[in-house]
Specification:
The chain is an all-alpha fold. α1 runs antiparallel to α2. About 0% of the residues are buried.
């Protein structure tokens, strides 16, 4: 009877230890879920910013095309009457608009790269979470088996 009691006591200690481990895994799981949600939010924010930048880029490109059409119209209308200085100023404005559009394109490309990095991080965290869930399920199974043995 004493040996049985010692075994039950040892199994109860093991169960308590595993329940503590189980609790730790739950806390880790919650931390990972919170981190995943934060990353999802960052990804959504980055996507929103990228969409905004794309919209701005489209608008800049439209303005650039309108400026180029206006330049062509003015060149055709004025022909040789346009002083060289004014023509150079118009070309300078077009060049500035092209530079702005190029900078916007680079910014959108950088944001898209950042989005990809965030997606990869989130995927790695999801894999870790799934692994931890699997470990937790295994630990729960062990605890249940030990409880059965103890009973």
């Amino acid at each position: 009877l004493k040996a049985t009691k010692d075994i039950v006591t040892a199994k109860a200690s093991e169960v308590e230890m595993l329940e503590g481990h189980n609790s730790g895994l739950r806390k880790d799981n919650q931390v990972l879920k919170t981190e995943i949600e934060r990353l999802k939010s960052e990804i959504a924010d980055a996507k929103g910013l990228a969409d905004t930048r794309k919209d701005e880029l489209v608008e800049v490109k439209k303005q650039l095309k309108a400026m180029e059409r206006e330049k062509e119209r003015l060149e055709s209308e004025l022909g040789s009457m346009v002083p060289r200085k004014e023509l150079l100023e118009s070309q300078s404005k077009v060049k500035e608009a092209q530079d702005v559009a190029g900078a916007k394109v680079k910014e959108v490309e950088m944001l898209n790269g950042h989005n990809t990095e965030l997606r990869n991080e989130a995927q790695a965290l999801r894999k870790d979470l799934e692994r931890m869930k699997s470990e937790l399920a295994g630990a729960k199974g062990d605890i249940a088996a030990w409880k059965e043995e103890a009973e």
